[in-house]
Amino acid sequence: MIELIRFHPPLLFHLIVLISLNELFHCLPISIPIGALFTTEQLEEQQAFQLAIEHFNSHLERNGSHYEPLIKIIDPQNNLFLYDDVCVMLQQTPVAILGPFFNNFGAAQLQSICEHYEIPHIEARMLVDFKARTDLSINLYPHQSLLAKVFHDLIESLDWNRFVIIYEDSESVIHFSEYMKHSQERQREVRIFQLQPDQSYREILWQIKATEITNVVLDINTEHILEVLKQAQQSGMLSEQHKYLITSLDLHTLDLEAYRHSRTNITWLKIVQEQHPYTENLRLLAKARNYERSMQSDSNAILIPPMTNIKSVSAMIFDAMEIITSALIELNDIKLLGSIDCNLEQKAWHHGSTIINYIRQVAIEGITGWVGFDESGFRANLTFDIVTTTEDSYEQIGYWKNGMIFRTNNWYRHLSSREQMTLVKVTTVLNDPFVMNARSSKELRGNDRYEGFVPDLMKEISKLLNIRFEINLVKDGAYGAVMNATSNDWNGMIGEVMRGEADIAVADLTINSNREQAVDFTYPFMSTGISIIYKKPTTKETSLWSFLSPFSTAVWICLLGAIVGISLIFFYVGRFTPYEWCNPHPCIHHDPVLENACNMRNSFWCSIGSLMQQGSDVAPKFVPTLKFDFALVFVI
């Protein structure tokens, strides 16, 4: 007998209400597809994406949802198939697409597709173009203009007046575009060398060694750094005097054990935060998944290298998944678009712009530091750690934040005794005899460009206080006057001191009440009635050959050669011309014996006597000889 179960009306009503409430409050899809594009070489980045999916699924489980990863392996050298791969991915309606994580023309193509269908597009690569992001795109990699500013500030803080830039790709020079703008006006010597793919690195390194410049900026691909350092060590370019600044954000992932004990200062920027909780979680998850793969019976299972040191792009992928998850949980109201066919005209996904707006408003402390975006879709308020090598590993010596470099106590341990001295920036103005341009046949740099009372005064002060100083002329050539009384804006040397562009102004500067209210003055020690000021003569020891000092050795050798040459010309021309042969006995008109006064002794005596301006009893007598001598002396 079959027993029919009948629902009581109240029970049926409550069941319908519960189902309706579940549909009302559970607005996220159960399965949330999310796409990513990788190359075959990007195994660690692909693993970071999968581990991030696994990690943040635990956050979405509270809402009854989970991520469904859509991974496409693409060929970076062939952009023709990229369109087809993206279209296949769009058929599964992803809420966002990550990648590509390399520079090629296909990235712009993907960005255009995502913009057309309003699919959020998230990148983590350094852009070599200066185009603004679209409304549907963000980039977690630091903008090239920001990196240029950071490297400019770091080089200024390291006080490198002479350095070499070694680069590989033509796009790499943008790292130093900010510094190149100011190198000319600051009289800094910057030399640029490009590594050629068909040329040995040693040839370039030997050329750099010949310049005797010990500060080197290495701006090359991460995979080539170890080989360049190896050949630099073989070329004698990794000594205690050499200092390297490497632009790669992934130098911490390389094994620098072979170069730690050379005492070469190797400095770079680091964006991955090792102390972040997610960093250790990512390592543990990677280790667990590798263990599971090793226990599989399938011998073809691929083991990913352990993520001991996480690459910056891998960390950015993890941060990207965190901000996407935060935005979805905050939004909690999306409907997936139906399958997208690139060959058909379809409407854009109206939830895409909403999701990207939520993502841009998210601000978190991720593995790569503070993750927030500006109105253009680029990272804002970034912090870069400044690290350098030690004999054991590496250590942080400072960090860059908001346009300023903050130094830790470790900073000064890696400086020489001279570099540890405080640098004082001096502003002044040209005015004889206080500050004058130094005269020299050679190109002068730094403080050697100027001479006078002010440079001599600063030299003596630096000896007493054990400091370094740098003299620069005031940009507008003015002493200092109020430009705007309301904003207390000054020009000239007073303005540079007030703005912090200079630490001190040293010049023949008149003290008045307005200037005293703006800056501090030392007590006046010199009046304006000075009439003569001259440099104290220095005594030098004289020697037997001091009379040769007016001319260099080369000039004396040329002068001696000229005397010998002219004397020999006198001798031979006097022998050739018939006018120099004279009758020794004028009374005998037809004497067959003739004499020539231009013998070797008289020729030398004539040349030396003419040089000493004393004259000579023997001299050329006739026009041909005199004419030739005049032409010879004129040419010489």
Automatic annotation (TrEMBL):
Keywords, sorted A to Z: Glycoprotein, Ion channel, Ion transport, Ligand-gated ion channel, Membrane, Postsynaptic cell membrane, Receptor, Signal, Synapse, Transmembrane, Transmembrane helix, Transport
Record keyword Chloroplast present: no
Pfam families: ANF_receptor, Lig_chan, Lig_chan-Glu_bd
Gene3D superfamilies in UniProt: 1.10.287.70, 3.40.50.2300, Periplasmic binding protein-like II
Membrane-topology descriptor: Multi-pass membrane protein
GO molecular function, one term: ligand-gated monoatomic ion channel activity
Subcellular location(s) per record: Membrane; Postsynaptic cell membrane
Membrane-spanning ranges: 554-573
SMART domains reported in the protein's UniProt record: Lig_chan-Glu_bd, PBPe
Principal subcellular localization: membrane
Residues annotated as domain Ionotropic glutamate receptor L-glutamate and glycine-binding: 433-499
Record carries keyword Transport: yes
Location of the Ionotropic glutamate receptor C-terminal domain: 423-607
Gene Ontology CC annotations of this record: postsynaptic membrane
UniProt signal peptide: 1-27
Record family assignment: Belongs to the glutamate-gated ion channel (TC 1.A.10.1) family.
Protein name: Glutamate receptor ionotropic, kainate 1
Native species: Sarcoptes scabiei (Itch mite)
